[in-house]
Amino acid sequence: FLDTSQVEDEVDHSIRKVYNGYNGTNPDAASRAIDYVQRQLRCCGIHNYSDWENTVWFKQTKNNSVPLSCCKAALSNCTGSLTRPMDLYSEGCEALVVKKLQEIMMYVIWAALAFAAIQLLGMLCACIVLCRRSRDPAYELLITGGTYA
């Protein structure tokens, strides 16, 4: 069995791998997903915007800036420059993604429980109908092959 710290380490490793594969000039699916998450959740980087400094994309661009998806939505002149950190979302995305996943899992669990309750109710109704039918004399004649006179 995996303990909680191993799971957290694995999630952290996976997210770092995705961030390291970011390519802003020719965005692939993973890069578009990062930009989408950062815009929607209003976050930047894994733990904060400084995480971008360790990515391949940041080192290749050499412009000391993070992706524009890190810019606060209200700002129109944001360039993603690390010299203006007040223009960037300060919260990291990892915690927010985990929180969203937990919320989604709660909905899935409640939906599964509701479905199970509906099935139990259906089985209970079927049992009640069968019990009442077995006491019906006309039903007994059908079972034994008898007929009405």
TrEMBL record:
InterPro entries: Tetraspanin/Peripherin (IPR018499), Tetraspanin_EC2_sf (IPR008952). Pfam families: Tetraspanin. It is a multi-pass membrane protein. It is found in: Membrane. It comes from the Eukaryota. The chain crosses the membrane at residues 104-131. Keywords: Glycoprotein, Membrane, Transmembrane, Transmembrane helix. Its main location: membrane. GO terms for cellular component: plasma membrane. The keyword Transmembrane helix applies. Regulates the proliferation and migration of oligodendrocytes, a process essential for normal myelination and repair. Interacts with claudin-11/CLDN11 and integrins. Belongs to the tetraspanin (TM4SF) family. This is Tetraspanin-3. It comes from Jacana jacana. The gene is Tspan3_1.
